[in-house]
Amino acid sequence: MLLKSDTISRYYSWPDAFILLLVGGIVLSGCKTKAPENTTVKLQTPGTKYITYKGQTGRRTNITLPDSSHVILNSLSVLEVPENYQHGNRAVILDGDAFFTVTPSTDTFTVTSDKLRATVLGTSFKMRSFSSQHGATVNLLTGKIRVNKSYHSASDNQPEILERGQMILANNDIDLMEKETYHPEELETWLSDTLTIKQANPMAVSRILEEWFGVEIEMRGDATKARIITEAAFYNASLEDVLSNLSAQQDFKYKISDNKVVITF
Length: 265
What we know:
By secondary structure, this protein is α+β, with helices and mostly antiparallel strands. The chain is 17% helix and 40% strand. One of its GO terms (molecular function) is sigma factor antagonist activity.
């Protein structure tokens, strides 16, 4: 059996079935989800030139913008920054997973993906929105943020205002955007780059790695006999480092190709 787990944080308290529906779900072999039509090119302002940053596979890339705002770009995520950014055009485009620490200014700072648009003056937050997936999230860590759909919705185009501990769950396939709560301490742990895995079976491990590194995991073979990871800790480790360690413990082989990992038991 071929089994692929979609990206979802293990910390949400929603019923598993609804969360899996929201972010794209567990997909059995032969079933495919339709990729969203929008691309970052369609989101660009006509006549404006952009500088493109791309994250490395299984690693985080640190970017400092002209106004000293800081971006942590996750694995193979893409950030497009307008060349006239420092002249009042603080509007970037994201396809992927990134954490933003925005320098306060009288000019708003906007992150746009194919599903969501987040607008702030100065705050810190994480957005995850891959054009290849229907699900997207925004987690606010400090300050306030306004989030709305980046496309016209036939049902609801009203923005949501988030404060610390609040997040947005969205899915453009079912035209849904909901405000929920999360544990900000977990995002702070992500920022510290200290990955801890406790009492996790292969499915749980795959979800943790998807969330942590912004990759897609596909599992093949029979994972039911694999041992439970009782506790493992990694600091500032790459995806390759983590998989090498876990493969020895759970007896699997893996292959990393771009932003996808195939794990075979």
